[in-house]
Each structure stands twice: as structure tokens, then as C-alpha cells.
Amino acid sequence: MQQEDARVLATVRRLWQGLASPTARFSAGRVAVVVNAGSMACPPGWIGVVEIDGSALAIVPDEDTARRLAIEDESPRSVGTVEFLRSRVQVAEVLGPATLDYLLPGRFRPAEEIDVVASKASDPAIESLLSKVGDDEASESGIFGITSPLFSVREHGRVLAVAGYRSWPLGVAHVTALTAPEARGTGLATRLASTAVEHALAAGLLPQWRAADTNPGSRAVARKLGFSAIGRQLSARPVVAEWPVPSADA
């Protein structure tokens, strides 16, 4: 591994350790359990598994969940699956699994330039695009919370695609793109995401891309732009036992 690549990998590890817990540390080739109900590596109270280059962090909301998972001696590559988590605990909802891609030094392959418009999320044309794709897809895309300019491509007043990035800790730029259903398969997402990546690189940031397994098109965009798969992520909401409320006569 080149020295520059090693530095990126070290940054990625520190990023996810910091998001998991102030005391979280990856252990080479192993699964490290982190008890933190308020972790930023997954929704609060959920179970989160982040695997980076053959080592994993398993974030759990409490010690009881940690005991039920009994995850420490498992393979880092096996614990980040829905099937594994469901074999240990009851799961009500999942996010992912997803690939975590990063742009290693010198690997960027810019796409053909395209005319873009810098927009705001409150723009009615952007809101129209979000209504077309629905809340779940818009949320999964990561469009909400973007801190960079929101780059868009328009045709006759309609927004066909948007892209941008959100600034994360340690100089990481979480890049995201969203295309209207009628414009998919045209290469717009790749060309527009390339604009966002160039903006992030010019700012000295490390581009990050998250692609859910259910969205192979997103992963394809990352590959075209030169991103490398460095890790995996999965979050699951465990079923919480509800104790019966005592009656007034009890």
C-alpha cells in the first residue's frame, strides 16, 4: 500500500472511531464492541456495524444487547449482515448494508463537464424533484444537510439531477447525487457528482461515497469516478421488549 493510501485509511479509521464513541478503537482483524446509545455511527439506540479494511466496530445501545450479540469472536466480514444480526436479536428495521467508498490520491477520473446551476434545497424545482423520488429515496440519497453548493442540472425549468457534499469530521466530504426517475441511465448522476467531487478536492477534502446494496447504480457512479471500496456499514433497530403496564387494580 502506498504511503498516501495508508494515510487515507488511517483517516477513515479515525473518522468512524470518533463517530462511534470517543473511546472506540479498531482492533486489527477483529470485532471491537462499543457500547454507546448515542453513537453518531448509526441512529441513536440502534445497532451499527462498520467494517473497515478487515476490522470492525460493532456499536450497541447497552450491555444487554452486547451480551445477546456475543459478537467479539466473530469474523469482521460476517457480522455486518442482516442475516447475522437477525440470528442473534430481533430486528425491527435496517439501513443498509452499504459500501463505503473513498477517493484515494491520484485516482479521480473526472467525467465530462456539464452546465450546472448552484441551487438551494428550498428551491421549488428541487422540492419537486424530491417529491418525485419519495421520502425514503431522498433520505437515503443524503441530499438533506448538504453544506456545499447544491449543484443541479435543469431542462425547461425542471431539475433533472442534483449533487453536492456534506462536510464530515477530519476533512471528509460525504458526496451524494440524486437523479429524477425520467433522467436515469443518461449519465447525468456521474457528470454532476464529478462536479461535486472536484469542488471537494479543490477544498482539500477527502471525498466519501456511500452506496446501499439495493442501489447498484450509485455504486456504479462511484466506480466510474475512481472511488475505492474501503469498508461496509449496516445499521439495525433492535426490537425493544415492552413490559405490560400495571392495571389500576394491581
Can you describe this structure?
With 250 residues, this protein is of the alpha+beta class. Helix content is 31%, strand content 30%. The chain has helices at residues 3-20, 63-69, 76-79, 82-88, 124-133, 135-141, 188-202, 216-225; strands at 31-35, 47-52, 55-60, 91-102, 117-119, 150-155, 158-168, 172-179, 206-212, 228-238. Strands 1-3-2-10-4-9-8-7-6-5 form a ten-stranded mixed beta sheet, sandwiched between helices. It is globular, with a radius of gyration of 20 Å. The model has no long low-confidence stretch (mean pLDDT 87).
What attributes characterize this protein structure?
globular; alpha+beta; 10-stranded mixed β-sheet; 250 residues; 10 strands
Mean pLDDT: 87
User: How many beta strands in the DSSP annotation?
Assistant: 10
Anisotropy-based shape: globular
Low-confidence stretches: none
Structural class: alpha+beta
Task: Write a brief caption for the model.
By secondary structure, the chain is an alpha+beta fold. It has 8 helices and 10 strands.
Topology readout:
Elements: H1 3-20, E1 31-35, E2 47-52, E3 55-60, H2 63-69, H3 76-79, H4 82-88, E4 91-102, E5 117-119, H5 124-133, H6 135-141, E6 150-155, E7 158-168, E8 172-179, H7 188-202, E9 206-212, H8 216-225, E10 228-238
Parallel strand pairs: 1-3, 8-9
Antiparallel strand pairs: 2-3, 2-10, 4-9, 4-10, 5-6, 6-7, 7-8
